[in-house]
């Protein structure tokens, strides 16, 4: 269904209200945590801050959109399953960083309409940076328009990636890709917050990003923001992004084909299919 710019702007404003409120909650917990739980896999952490920030977001969205569906990292799927509107929420993206007081974390909120990410807000409360976009309305950082970089050669690019929590259990752990691209570029960062990685591609600080093992709430907001900043977002092989595939390739567009080719060379599709975990 097509929505008017005014309607998308309304969604964007409410998502912003929720992200700013959640960011304030995160800031209030920073450095005060006494207990950090593990969710199952080693290193997959859960804190009181994740839960409190998520509760804040859910309360605001429920007040404005009681009939919309929700997919929130800590609460799972909520609301009416048949709604065309699905909010994908990561209250604290970068929990490991947060638990160590390493200041690279964010709240990420996206609205998918009929399965397509159309509104995205990512808020980094430590640096007070608010990244926002809605389909057709452009992308902003602290309310000023942003564009992707113009780097057109892999050898001159700075990339970012990440390693999912199942990295100890699967040969498909992204280490081969990381080594290969570290040699071909000016560097590959691993910052620990997928949403902020995407936001930084959108505003031109980084030229490209790839990762596997993600969930929709990690990437949905960043997808809209990168696209609206003029970038390209696809699957590793350049085909259309599947939001629940776990894999994403997001770039400034100029290096997209070459980065896709290199990723496919390191680990072609046949190898993924044989991997223990194929996400
Ligand atoms: C994680 C971060 C990290 C990425 C992991 C994600 P969390 O999210 O985005 O950068 O490498 O795959 O799960 O657990 O901090 O919300
Ligand atoms: Ca996350
Ligand atoms: Ca999280």
Automatic annotation (TrEMBL):
Q: Organism's domain of life?
A: Bacteria
What Gene Ontology terms for biological process does this UniProt record contain?
inositol metabolic process; phosphatidylinositol phosphate biosynthetic process; signal transduction
Keyword Hydrolase belongs to the record: yes
Q: Give the matching InterPro entries.
A: IMPase, Inositol_monoP_metal-BS, Inositol_monophosphatase-like, Inositol_monophosphatase_CS, Inositol_monophosphatase_SuhB
Reactions the enzyme catalyzes: a myo-inositol phosphate + H2O = myo-inositol + phosphate
Which PROSITE patterns does this chain map to? IMP_1 (PS00629), IMP_2 (PS00630)
- What EC number(s) does its UniProt record assign? 3.1.3.25
Q: Which residues form a coiled coil?
A: none
Q: What class of enzyme is it?
A: hydrolase
* Key word Glycosyltransferase present: no
Its cofactor is: Mg(2+)
Pfam families per the UniProt record, alphabetical? Inositol_P (PF00459)
Keywords assigned by UniProt, alphabetized? Hydrolase, Magnesium, Metal-binding
Amino-acid positions noted as binding Mg(2+) 1 in the UniProt annotation, renumbered to this chain: 73, 92, 218
Q: Which GO terms describe its molecular function?
A: inositol monophosphate 1-phosphatase activity; metal ion binding
Residues given in the record as Mg(2+) 2 binding sites: 90, 93
Q: Which family does it belong to?
A: Belongs to the inositol monophosphatase superfamily.
For this entry, the protein name equals: Inositol-1-monophosphatase
Query: Which source organism?
Result: Aerosakkonema funiforme FACHB-1375
Native organism taxonomy: Bacteria, Bacillati, Cyanobacteriota, Cyanophyceae, Oscillatoriophycideae
């Amino acid at each position: 269904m097509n929505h008017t710019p005014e309607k998308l702007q309304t969604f964007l404003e409410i998502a912003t209200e929720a992200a700013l409120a959640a960011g304030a909650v995160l800031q209030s917990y920073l450095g005060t945590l006494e207990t950090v739980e593990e969710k199952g896999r080693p290193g997959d952490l859960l804190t009181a801050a994740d839960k409190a920030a998520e509760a804040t977001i859910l309360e605001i969205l429920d007040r404005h959109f009681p009939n919309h569906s929700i997919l929130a990292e800590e609460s799972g799927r909520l609301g009416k399953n048949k709604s065309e509107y699905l909010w994908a929420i990561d209250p604290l993206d970068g929990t490991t960083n947060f638990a160590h007081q390493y200041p690279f974390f964010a709240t990420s909120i996206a609205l998918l309409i009929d399965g397509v990410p159309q509104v995205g807000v990512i808020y980094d409360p430590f640096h007070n940076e608010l990244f926002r976009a809605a389909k057709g309305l452009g992308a902003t950082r602290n309310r000023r328009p942003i564009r992707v970089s113009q780097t057109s050669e892999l050898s001159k690019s700075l990339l970012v990636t990440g390693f999912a929590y199942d990295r100890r259990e699967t040969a498909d752990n992204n280490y081969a890709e990381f080594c290969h691209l570290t040699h071909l570029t000016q560097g590959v960062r691993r910052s620990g917050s997928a949403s902020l990685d995407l936001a930084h591609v959108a505003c031109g600080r980084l030229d490209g990003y790839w990762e596997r093992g993600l969930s929709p709430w990690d990437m949905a907001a960043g997808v809209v923001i990168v696209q609206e900043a003029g970038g390209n977002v696809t699957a590793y092989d350049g085909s259309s992004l599947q939001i629940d595939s776990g894999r994403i390739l997001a770039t400034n567009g100029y290096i997209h084909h070459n980065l896709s080719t290199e990723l496919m060379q390191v680990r072609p599709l046949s190898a993924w299919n044989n991997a223990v975990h194929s996400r």
